[in-house]
TrEMBL record:
The lineage of its organism: Bacteria, Bacillati, Actinomycetota, Actinomycetes, Propionibacteriales. Keywords: Cell membrane, Membrane, Transmembrane, Transmembrane helix. This is ABC transporter permease. Its main location: membrane. Pfam families: BPD_transp_2 (PF02653). One of its GO terms (cellular component) is plasma membrane. It comes from Nocardioides zhouii. The keyword Ion transport does not apply. PANTHER family: ABC TRANSPORTER PERMEASE PROTEIN YPHD-RELATED-RELATED (PTHR32196), RIBOSE IMPORT PERMEASE PROTEIN RBSC (PTHR32196:SF72). InterPro entries: ABC_transp_permease.
């Protein structure tokens, strides 16, 4: 393990220790459970965006994909708008919708040959448009006991949503570690030209990565719907930049080829612990954003310092 890999976990321990000294309420078991629960949705979104970052691409489609999936699932399970009550089938359809939008991002990237942040921003707008059409001016409130229980029921002190997030991190790590998709995602971010010259068709793997990311975003939209007991077009607002922040703070480079799911998961905990701790010690919300921004800049600077020294260029 390199120093760069050890830095975020050490920072997490230090930040947790500092806030524990500053606030008695912070170090309680109940607050630790709140931190884990608060990190659940962000962790799932970050799982998806981490695969994209490993390729050296940027994905801004999360808000639109989450919004479309949130409205879709709220209209397919028991709700106040129609007589549908498809339960888990409705959840599956919402995930497939997220996958389809993610696939659209990948296809647009490899076919149009434009920067990924532009194609994914456009797909986000498409998702928000679909969500607005399905919303139709009337908020769908869910009445599905199964979906409601995800946010309410607990196992070993943690909400079901938190365990879903843990499962997503595990699945994401297994894909990254043991599948060809995960290995090629790293290779594309590290040296795409070399991979292509070795005979690997890069385009299908790019599309597959964006499709996988869209599936994670779709699940995150379902999770937000469970938390709110309603479908909202803006269910994913702000999660794209929050997930990128968490991934970068955890050690996943924006330029690709380094980091991964476990790194990003540590980043999610870092961001969530920092947010919770600042609230516990009474820091003004206006200062919280500034503090988090400084930490992100410091994390990015520390991560790219070795490459900057080697290449002596600023992009």
């Amino acid at each position: 393990m390199s120093l760069g890999d050890a830095g975020p976990p050490i920072a997490l321990v230090v930040i947790f220790a500092v806030f524990s000294l500053l606030s008695d309420d912070f170090r309680t078991l109940g607050n630790v459970q709140n931190i884990m629960d608060a990190a659940a949705v962000l962790a799932v979104v970050t799982c998806g965006i981490s695969f994209v970052l490993m390729m050296g691409s940027i994905d801004l489609s999360a808000p639109g994909v989450m919004g479309a999936s949130a409205i879709a699932v709220s209209l397919l399970v028991a709700n106040n708008r129609n007589d549908n009550a498809y339960g888990l089938l409705g959840v599956l359809v919402a995930l497939l919708l997220g996958s389809a939008l993610g696939c659209l991002s990948g296809l647009a990237l490899v076919s149009l040959k434009v920067p990924s942040f532009m194609t994914t921003l456009g797909v986000s707008a498409v998702g928000l448009g679909l969500a607005t059409l399905m919303f139709a001016g009337v908020q769908p409130n869910i009445r599905d006991d199964m979906l409601d229980s995800w946010a309410v029921q607990r196992f070993l002190g943690l909400a079901y949503l938190t365990w879903i997030a843990v499962a997503c991190v595990l699945v994401g790590w297994l894909i990254q570690r043991y599948s060809r998709l995960g290995r090629y995602a790293f290779a594309i971010g590290g040296a795409e030209e070399v991979l292509a010259l070795s005979g690997v068709k890069v385009a299908p793997y790019k599309v597959a990565v964006f499709t996988l990311a869209g599936t994670f975003y779709g699940l995150a939209g379902v999770m937000v719907t469970s938390q709110l007991s309603a479908g909202l077009v803006q269910a994913g607002k702000g999660y794209d930049f929050a997930a990128i922040t968490a991934a970068v703070v955890g050690g996943t480079l924006l330029t690709g080829g380094r980091g991964g799911i476990l790194h990003s998961a540590v980043g999610v905990l870092l961001v969530t612990v920092l947010t919770n701790g600042l609230v516990q010690v009474g820091v003004s919300p206006y200062w919280q954003g500034g503090v988090q921004g400084l930490i992100v800049v410091a994390a990015v600077a520390a991560a790219v310092l070795p490459q900057r020294r080697r290449n002596q260029v600023t992009k």
